[in-house]
TrEMBL record:
Taxonomic lineage: Bacteria, Pseudomonadati, Bacteroidota, Flavobacteriia, Flavobacteriales
Name of the molecule in the record: Lipoprotein
Organism: Winogradskyella marincola
């Protein structure tokens, strides 16, 4: 009788311990799976720094989609300017504050090799993991090495439009103007790059943007007007080039905003005395442009931007 009672008590104890254990395991499981889902209010951009290999941009959009753009600069070829190789892809993303999973939309075979683009040989441990058409990235990092190129993370506040004068990748320009600039850069050759220098929203529909194009020799500034995000007009407003000291004349152009819709350009021409120029149009041997006495002429032009975005001007010489 006692033996039977002891057996019953042992079974009761074991049953209670099992239930306690199951509750504990269930609680631990819930704790591990309660990872807060990442929700973005602003667009996150990974943009490559200056390099001679490629322009790369990965954009995480708050609606759960992403865009990937990669423009590979071609090798310089004699007597020709080949176009860059462009890779575009998109898909959906999800994740948390630690990791984000990029699910790339399937493309034609061999058209998108994620293992080559996200090459672990050039990345830190666990920076990203590739599996078929998905890539898991470490979202806590401020930089990803995509195709061996450093791509820095920045936030683009969707509700904010800035007039900051800057070419830094962390500056806050509207996404639509950055996309236009990105498309232009993808069509340029390896030795040319265009950056946004200044952006200003005049009213709800009219905007102006100053771009600077560098080709390794000259920096050219252009002002472009946009009406409802569509380009309306443009004008070259500044230029500065490397100087050839054997040439007897040096020209450059500067600009200045007089108001939000009025600006002026000043064209300068600096030249040496005619007596220092040889028969071939160069400075005579033994003389140097920097050390010679020069004369500077200038022409000022004033321009107005009307409400439709058209640029009109008059000369004031």
């Amino acid at each position: 009788m006692k033996t039977t009672l002891y057996l019953v008590l042992i079974l009761i104890l074991l049953s209670c311990q099992k239930k306690i254990s199951e509750k504990t395991q269930h609680k631990e499981f819930n704790t591990k799976t309660e990872i807060k889902k990442l929700e973005l209010n602003d667009t996150i951009i990974y943009l490559s720094d200056d390099n001679d290999l490629a322009l790369i941009k990965l954009t995480l959009i708050p609606n759960g989609t992403f865009d990937f753009h990669m423009s590979i600069y071609p090798e310089t070829m004699q007597d020709s300017e080949p176009k860059p190789e462009i890779i575009k892809a998109n898909g959906i993303w999800n994740g948390n504050k630690k990791t984000v999973l990029l699910n790339f939309e399937k493309q034609e075979k061999d058209s998108l090799n994620l293992n080559k683009i996200f090459d672990s040989n050039y990345a830190k441990e666990n920076e990203f993991k590739v599996n078929n058409n998905t890539v898991e990235i470490d979202y806590s990092l401020d930089k990803l090495n995509i195709w061996g190129i450093s791509c820095y993370k920045s936030k683009k506040e969707n509700s904010e439009i800035s007039t900051t004068v800057s070419t830094n990748s962390n500056s806050k320009f509207p996404i639509w103007i950055e996309k236009i600039n990105l498309d232009i850069n993808s069509e340029l050759g390896q030795h040319q790059k265009r950056n946004i220098k200044e952006f200003n929203k005049i009213n709800d529909s009219l905007s102006i943007c100053v771009f600077i194009l560098n080709d390794g020799v000259c920096s050219k500034y252009s002002l472009v007007t946009f009406l409802n995000q569509n380009e309306i007009d443009n004008a070259e407003i500044g230029i500065e080039c490397d100087q050839d000291m054997s040439i007897p004349e040096y020209k450059w152009k500067e600009f200045e905003f007089l108001s939000t819709t009025t600006f002026q350009t000043i064209e300068f021409s600096e030249h040496v005395n005619d007596s220092l120029i040889d028969n071939n149009g160069y400075i005579k041997k033994g003389y140097d442009f920097m050390e010679s006495k020069t004369t500077i002429d200038s022409i000022i032009k004033v321009f107005e931007i009307d409400k439709t975005g058209k640029i009109t001007g008059t000369n004031n010489e």
